Every structure is written in C-alpha cells, then in structure tokens.
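anyone seen this seq b4? input:
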Amino acid sequence: MPEGLEQSAIAERDVDLKVIDRVSNEVLETMFFTEAIATGCDHSWFSTAVTARIAFAGSHAGEFLLSVSREAARAIASGFLGLAEEETTENDCGQVILELSNILCGAVLSNRWPESRLSLATPELGGCGCANEGALHRCFTLPVGALALTICAADAAVSRG
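predicted toks r here
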C-alpha cells in the first residue's frame, strides 16, 4: 500500500476507535452504571463470554459483535435491572446483553456514519468473533470483568486492519 494511503487508513482507524471509546463509555456509564477502560486484548475469557451479534445493512453492511465476560454480564445486568447480583439469572444476563448490544451498535454506527442509512437486524445471542482479519476491534476492562466490541464490515470504511 502506498505510504499516503497507509497513513490515511491508520488515521481512519484511529477515528473509528475514538468513536468506539467515547460512545461505549457514554452508554455504559449513563445506562448501565459501569465504567469501561480501553485496554490491550486478552481473549482468554472469550470461550465463556456472553456474546451478542447484530447484522446491519444499508449504506454500510456487516456485523456487530459484543462479547462480555460472565462476571461482567452479571454485574451489568444487576445494575441495569436494579437487582442484587445473586438475584440476577442467566436469562436476565442474556436479555440485558442483547439490549446493551442493540444500544451500542446503534450508537456507534450512527456516530461513526451520521449520514448513513442502516437497518439493524434483531440482536441474537451466540457467536464468538469474526473471521474478517480487518475487523475493527476494541477490548475494555470493566470494574468487574471485560467487554469486547467488534465490527466486521463488508465495505472498506471499517474493514481496515
């Protein structure tokens, strides 16, 4: 890749990550009463994570994935529902993570592409990442556990690695 294009791709990726950082923090603090700190990736917890997947189409197409460690899912669900952690069921955790993924997906995509027209599919539980090597990915440390957000897009605007 020519140097100018490579620098442009790096700058675009930096913008994407800043949007993800800002929006994720706003959503998690205001609606889920927790703080997220962008961190280096350690995916050792992925095998037991609660993962939600949302397909999106329109001016941009792809998939949004949100993976949350089990302990973080329980803490987020209890905070969102106003229940003690021991009162929070696995079903509660799954439903709240689906809601969180829907909110984060809409907020991140609309902040990144404010002029776009996108249609979001219904969030579904399941999945474990994205095969697209150029996926935009960010891990966060929470007060309890971890969270990872991945955007796999078919268009060049997001798929830069």
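The helical segments are 3-32, 70-81, 90-112. The first strand starts at residue 37 and ends at 39. kinda curious what u guys think
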